[in-house]
Amino acid sequence: MLRDGRELLSSVVASQVDMHARFGGVVPELAARAHLDAIAPTVDEALLALENRWDDVDAIVVTRGPGLIGSLLVGTAYAQSVALMRGLPICGVSHLAGHVYSAMLAEPDLEPPYLALVVSGGHTDCVVLRAHGDAVRLAATRDDAVGEAFDKVARMLGLPYPGGPAVQNAAESGDPSRFPLPRTRLDDAFSFSGLKTAVRYAVRDLSAERLDQRGVPRDPQVVADLAASFQVAAIDQLVSGLEHAKERSGADQVAVVGGVAANAPLRQAVRERFAGLRVVIPPLRYCTDNAAMIAVAGWHRLQVRGADQPGFEVDPGLDEFA
Ligand code: KG4
Ligand code: ZN
Question: Are 321 and 94 in contact (CB under 8 A)?
Answer without folding.
Answer: yes
